[in-house]
Specification:
four-stranded antiparallel beta sheet, elongated, 4 strands, 1 helix
């Protein structure tokens, strides 16, 4: 999945907290990792995945 133009993934941390992880890769090496857990910023992704903001399934 692409997150803000970077390759990444969505996960549920400890089964409860929705987060995205995006990797900035330069010359085949990860140079930056961006993790977002802010529910306000992840509202759209949570809705697409059928999750509530607390991480539970609707």
């Amino acid at each position: 999945m692409w997150i803000d133009g970077l390759p990444g993934y969505v996960s549920l941390e400890r089964g409860k907290v929705l987060q995205t992880t995006a990797l900035n890769i330069v010359d085949g090496r990860v140079v930056e990792i961006f993790i977002t857990r802010n529910p306000d910023k992840l509202e759209r992704i949570a809705a697409e995945l059928g999750l509530s903001q607390s991480g539970g399934v609707h």
